[in-house]
Amino acid sequence: MTSVYHEIINDSITVDDEEIDELSAQGYDEDDRLPTLHIWPKNIGIIQIVFGFVTVCIGVLEIFYLPLVIHPEEEREIHLGKDNCYGAGLFAGICMVLTGSTAVRASISRRPTSVRKFFNLTIFTLLLYVASAVLLIVGYSVKWTTRDQYPVDSYLYEIHIFVSVFTMIGFLFIIATFVQYYETIFCGDFQLCYNWFSCCLRCIPKKILQKITNSVRGNT
Q: Where are the transmembrane segments (predicted)?
């Protein structure tokens, strides 16, 4: 004859097994429902790394190498000034390399956190490229970077033209990346907009934040 104690133990084991199975099923469903991108940014990340690296190399030539090598007998200070647009191309190239690296990482790991980091850095790099493009245009318009502003036979003017060209090409790539992924990542399955609101407005309940996010998503 089975005692009451054994019946209680058996019932608890059965309930625990059912809960474990339910949790396992929920975890499996969540993995199946992980957000995904229509095209993972691996190829565009590689292109960004290449163009960013070339831009960085040319920026190093403009700011560090050529001023020291062309006239080694003269004491020339390495500086970020009007003649190199305050290193706009160099900083833009560095951020482009970082953005491309996060794009490749997001494509490999395919985790939502990696995708959000990639797009956050894309937005920052886009803003930096806007500032760099404006600064380069201003430099040409107010004659900061005309040929007569550089020493004769220094090739700094030609190098600055290459910096400007590669910066503008990188600007086009970063715009294409933003346009291609902003809807899916910012207001789509990855809910970057919701993460921004929840990070900046922690005192607001999650339900209200979700309504705000859904309204923004509906407007887009």
A: 43-66, 86-106, 118-139, 159-182
